[in-house]
Amino acid sequence: MNASALLARHTVIADPPLAKFLFSDTRMAIVWLVVRVYLGYSWFDAGWHKILDTGAKSNYIIDGSGLLAFWNRIAAVPAAPAKPVILYDWYRGFIQFLIDNHTEVFMGKVVAFGETAVGIGLILGAFVGVAALAGGFMNMNFMLAGSASSNPVLLILAIVLILAWKTAGYIGLDRYLLPILGTPWRAPKTETPAKKGLVPQLA
After folding, report:
1. What pLDDT score was predicted for residue 7?
2. pLDDT digit string (tens) for 136-150?
3. Are the beta carbons of 167 and 144 closer than 8 angstroms?
4. Full DSSP string of 83-116
5. What share of the chain is helix, strand, coil (3-state, %, to 5)?
6. How far apart are CA 187 and CA 169, in angstroms?
7. What is the pLDDT of residues 24-44, one digit of tens each?
Protein backbone atom coordinates (compact mmCIF):
# COMPACT_ATOMS: atom_id res chain seq x y z
CA MET A 1 0.00 0.00 0.00
CA ASN A 2 1.52 3.33 -1.05
CA ALA A 3 1.68 6.40 1.20
CA SER A 4 -0.99 8.41 -0.69
CA ALA A 5 -3.52 5.59 -0.42
CA LEU A 6 -2.76 5.21 3.30
CA LEU A 7 -3.27 8.93 3.96
CA ALA A 8 -6.47 8.99 1.91
CA ARG A 9 -8.19 6.61 4.32
CA HIS A 10 -8.67 9.39 6.93
CA THR A 11 -8.54 7.03 9.88
CA VAL A 12 -9.24 8.65 13.26
CA ILE A 13 -7.51 6.89 16.17
CA ALA A 14 -9.58 7.16 19.34
CA ASP A 15 -7.97 8.01 22.68
CA PRO A 16 -7.77 5.18 25.21
CA PRO A 17 -10.28 5.42 28.07
CA LEU A 18 -7.63 6.41 30.62
CA ALA A 19 -6.31 9.29 28.50
CA LYS A 20 -9.86 10.41 27.77
CA PHE A 21 -10.65 10.48 31.49
CA LEU A 22 -7.44 12.28 32.47
CA PHE A 23 -7.38 14.92 29.75
CA SER A 24 -10.95 15.28 28.47
CA ASP A 25 -13.23 14.58 31.44
CA THR A 26 -14.33 17.62 33.44
CA ARG A 27 -14.30 15.51 36.61
CA MET A 28 -10.51 15.90 36.52
CA ALA A 29 -10.82 19.69 36.47
CA ILE A 30 -10.33 19.95 40.23
CA VAL A 31 -6.98 18.15 39.94
CA TRP A 32 -5.84 20.45 37.14
CA LEU A 33 -6.99 23.43 39.20
CA VAL A 34 -4.52 22.49 41.94
CA VAL A 35 -1.72 21.86 39.43
CA ARG A 36 -2.23 25.06 37.49
CA VAL A 37 -2.57 27.27 40.59
CA TYR A 38 0.69 25.88 41.95
CA LEU A 39 2.43 26.36 38.61
CA GLY A 40 0.81 29.74 38.09
CA TYR A 41 1.87 31.03 41.49
CA SER A 42 5.45 29.90 40.80
CA TRP A 43 5.53 31.93 37.58
CA PHE A 44 3.70 34.93 39.04
CA ASP A 45 6.03 35.07 42.04
CA ALA A 46 9.13 34.89 39.82
CA GLY A 47 7.88 37.53 37.40
CA TRP A 48 6.48 39.92 39.99
CA HIS A 49 9.79 39.99 41.86
CA LYS A 50 11.52 40.98 38.62
CA ILE A 51 8.99 43.75 38.00
CA LEU A 52 9.41 45.19 41.50
CA ASP A 53 13.22 44.90 41.55
CA THR A 54 14.76 48.35 41.04
CA GLY A 55 18.33 47.48 41.99
CA ALA A 56 20.99 49.19 39.90
CA LYS A 57 22.60 45.86 39.02
CA SER A 58 19.67 43.49 39.42
CA ASN A 59 16.66 45.09 37.72
CA TYR A 60 14.91 43.65 34.69
CA ILE A 61 12.52 46.52 33.92
CA ILE A 62 14.65 49.68 34.00
CA ASP A 63 17.68 48.77 31.90
CA GLY A 64 17.82 44.99 32.15
CA SER A 65 21.03 44.95 34.21
CA GLY A 66 19.93 41.86 36.10
CA LEU A 67 19.31 39.92 32.91
CA LEU A 68 22.58 41.12 31.40
CA ALA A 69 24.49 39.96 34.47
CA PHE A 70 22.83 36.55 34.16
CA TRP A 71 23.72 36.33 30.45
CA ASN A 72 27.34 37.31 31.05
CA ARG A 73 27.69 34.67 33.73
CA ILE A 74 26.27 31.80 31.71
CA ALA A 75 27.99 32.78 28.45
CA ALA A 76 31.47 32.84 30.02
CA VAL A 77 33.79 30.00 28.99
CA PRO A 78 36.07 29.03 31.90
CA ALA A 79 39.60 27.71 31.53
CA ALA A 80 39.96 23.95 31.17
CA PRO A 81 39.28 21.55 32.77
CA ALA A 82 36.28 23.48 34.09
CA LYS A 83 33.14 23.10 31.98
CA PRO A 84 31.02 26.02 30.77
CA VAL A 85 27.56 26.57 32.24
CA ILE A 86 25.90 26.22 28.84
CA LEU A 87 26.42 22.77 27.34
CA TYR A 88 25.44 23.54 23.74
CA ASP A 89 27.62 25.90 21.70
CA TRP A 90 24.70 27.03 19.52
CA TYR A 91 22.78 28.23 22.57
CA ARG A 92 25.84 30.00 23.97
CA GLY A 93 26.20 31.70 20.59
CA PHE A 94 22.56 32.79 20.78
CA ILE A 95 23.07 34.30 24.25
CA GLN A 96 26.24 36.04 23.07
CA PHE A 97 24.28 37.46 20.13
CA LEU A 98 21.74 38.93 22.56
CA ILE A 99 24.56 40.43 24.64
CA ASP A 100 26.40 41.92 21.66
CA ASN A 101 23.22 43.55 20.36
CA HIS A 102 22.32 45.04 23.78
CA THR A 103 18.88 43.44 23.88
CA GLU A 104 18.74 43.24 27.66
CA VAL A 105 16.60 46.40 27.94
CA PHE A 106 13.86 44.86 25.79
CA MET A 107 14.29 41.23 26.81
CA GLY A 108 14.31 42.11 30.52
CA LYS A 109 10.77 43.43 30.18
CA VAL A 110 9.74 40.43 28.05
CA VAL A 111 10.98 37.99 30.70
CA ALA A 112 9.51 39.84 33.69
CA PHE A 113 6.10 40.58 32.19
CA GLY A 114 6.02 37.24 30.36
CA GLU A 115 6.51 35.25 33.56
CA THR A 116 3.88 37.33 35.32
CA ALA A 117 1.38 36.95 32.46
CA VAL A 118 1.86 33.17 32.39
CA GLY A 119 1.23 33.05 36.13
CA ILE A 120 -1.96 35.13 35.90
CA GLY A 121 -3.26 33.07 32.98
CA LEU A 122 -2.73 29.79 34.80
CA ILE A 123 -4.20 30.98 38.09
CA LEU A 124 -7.32 32.40 36.42
CA GLY A 125 -7.62 29.45 34.07
CA ALA A 126 -7.48 31.63 30.95
CA PHE A 127 -6.05 29.95 27.83
CA VAL A 128 -4.33 27.39 30.03
CA GLY A 129 -2.84 25.45 27.11
CA VAL A 130 -1.20 28.56 25.65
CA ALA A 131 0.01 29.79 29.05
CA ALA A 132 1.47 26.37 29.90
CA LEU A 133 3.20 26.21 26.51
CA ALA A 134 4.77 29.65 27.07
CA GLY A 135 5.87 28.64 30.56
CA GLY A 136 7.32 25.37 29.29
CA PHE A 137 9.25 27.27 26.61
CA MET A 138 10.79 29.50 29.28
CA ASN A 139 11.60 26.44 31.43
CA MET A 140 13.41 24.92 28.46
CA ASN A 141 15.42 28.09 27.93
CA PHE A 142 16.42 28.26 31.59
CA MET A 143 17.55 24.65 31.48
CA LEU A 144 19.53 25.24 28.27
CA ALA A 145 21.14 28.14 30.13
CA GLY A 146 22.33 25.69 32.77
CA SER A 147 19.80 26.58 35.45
CA ALA A 148 18.12 23.42 36.74
CA SER A 149 16.53 24.53 40.03
CA SER A 150 12.77 23.84 39.87
CA ASN A 151 12.62 24.07 36.06
CA PRO A 152 12.44 20.29 35.36
CA VAL A 153 9.44 19.87 37.69
CA LEU A 154 7.71 22.98 36.33
CA LEU A 155 8.29 21.77 32.77
CA ILE A 156 6.67 18.39 33.51
CA LEU A 157 3.64 20.12 35.05
CA ALA A 158 3.41 22.42 32.02
CA ILE A 159 3.43 19.43 29.66
CA VAL A 160 0.63 17.78 31.65
CA LEU A 161 -1.46 20.96 31.49
CA ILE A 162 -0.89 21.22 27.75
CA LEU A 163 -2.24 17.69 27.36
CA ALA A 164 -5.24 18.61 29.54
CA TRP A 165 -5.86 21.97 27.85
CA LYS A 166 -9.55 21.22 27.23
CA THR A 167 -10.42 20.67 30.89
CA ALA A 168 -7.54 22.25 32.84
CA GLY A 169 -9.32 25.62 32.83
CA TYR A 170 -12.85 24.27 33.21
CA ILE A 171 -12.90 25.64 36.77
CA GLY A 172 -11.79 29.00 35.50
CA LEU A 173 -12.19 31.42 32.62
CA ASP A 174 -11.61 28.80 29.93
CA ARG A 175 -15.06 27.43 30.71
CA TYR A 176 -16.39 30.55 28.97
CA LEU A 177 -13.49 31.51 26.69
CA LEU A 178 -13.05 28.21 24.86
CA PRO A 179 -16.70 27.86 23.78
CA ILE A 180 -16.53 31.39 22.37
CA LEU A 181 -13.58 30.28 20.26
CA GLY A 182 -15.50 27.23 19.04
CA THR A 183 -14.18 24.61 21.43
CA PRO A 184 -17.25 23.53 23.43
CA TRP A 185 -17.23 20.62 25.82
CA ARG A 186 -20.71 19.55 24.83
CA ALA A 187 -21.10 17.31 21.83
CA PRO A 188 -22.74 19.02 18.84
CA LYS A 189 -26.47 18.55 18.60
CA THR A 190 -27.54 16.02 16.05
CA GLU A 191 -30.82 16.01 14.19
CA THR A 192 -33.19 13.39 15.59
CA PRO A 193 -35.20 11.19 13.25
CA ALA A 194 -38.43 12.81 14.50
CA LYS A 195 -37.29 16.20 13.23
CA LYS A 196 -36.36 14.95 9.79
CA GLY A 197 -38.78 15.50 6.97
CA LEU A 198 -40.89 12.54 5.92
CA VAL A 199 -39.70 10.86 2.77
CA PRO A 200 -42.59 9.95 0.48
CA GLN A 201 -42.87 6.25 -0.09
CA LEU A 202 -43.62 4.83 -3.51
CA ALA A 203 -46.49 2.38 -3.76
Report:
1. 60
2. 999 999 999 998 889
3. no
4. PPS---HHHHHHHHHHHHTT-HHHHHHHHHHHHH
5. 60, 0, 40
6. 18
7. 999 999 999 999 999 999 999
Instruction: State the Cα–Cα distance between residues 3 and 17, nearest whole angstrom.
Output: 29
Find, among 162, 129, 155, 163, the residue nearest to 21 by Cα: 163
Q: What are phi and psi of 199, to 5 degrees?
A: -95, 125
Of 181, 163, 168, 179, nearest to 125 by C-alpha is 168
DSSP 3-state of 23: helix
How many residues in the chain?
203
Give Cα 16 distance to the centre of its chain. 24
Cα(15)–Cα(98) distance, integer angstroms: 43
Q: How far is 40 from 35, CA to CA, in rounded Å?
A: 8
CB atoms within 10 A of CB 18: 8
Query: Which letter, b or e, does each residue of 169-200 get, where b requires 16 or more Cβ atoms within 10 Å of its Cβ?
Result: bbbbebeebbeeeeeeeeeeeeeeeeeeeeee
Asked whether the beta carbons of 74 and 111 are under 8 A apart, the reply is no
Q: At what angle do helices 65-75 and 89-100 cross, to 10 degrees?
A: 140
15 or 167: whose pLDDT is higher?
167
pLDDT confidence of residue 203: 46
* Burial zone of 56 (CB within 10 Å; 0-12 exposed, 13-18 middle, 19+ buried): exposed
